[in-house]
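Fold this sequence, please.
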Amino acid sequence: MTSAPFQPAQPSSRPSGRPARRAVIAAAGAAGLTAALTACGSEDDSGSGTGTGVDAEGSGPTGAGDQAEGGEAAGGGTVIARTSDVPEGGGMVVGDVVVTQPTAGEFKAFSSKCTHQGCAVKDVKDGVIHCPCHGSQFSAADGSVTKGPATQPLAAAEIAVDGESITRV
């Protein structure tokens, strides 16, 4: 059995100015991971739960009377829900706000942005606002944290109730 004489490895055919394929793939993966983490947001320290509200416009179900979704109410503001749409002891997420009815006829509103990492809260059941991302829970009565990892309450949002209409102020 004869073997071929030892030959040193040939130099790479890749020009020396171009990065290796592995480096390109690793950089693309890192960029994707950075984008995903940025999308989750950062912890929001601005919400004290007693502030004057959230400025962004909400959108939601049809308001009272002939008001269209997101329409202007008679007293100003944007109609975001009807009182009959918000269950007692529960609530609903409407755009960037969560509207609750802790007790009959009492309506509250908070930012729907979880103070842990900025995810949108999902639902309100049995007086508790739930964040699906990491399990934080907030009181539907005042937005305070009832279960972490969040440590800050949800920021209060200003609403007005006029008959059946709940409007964003």
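Strands lie at 78-82, 91-94, 97-100, 108-111, 123-125, 128-130, 137-139, 145-147, 159-162, 165-168. The chain is about 10% helix and 20% strand.
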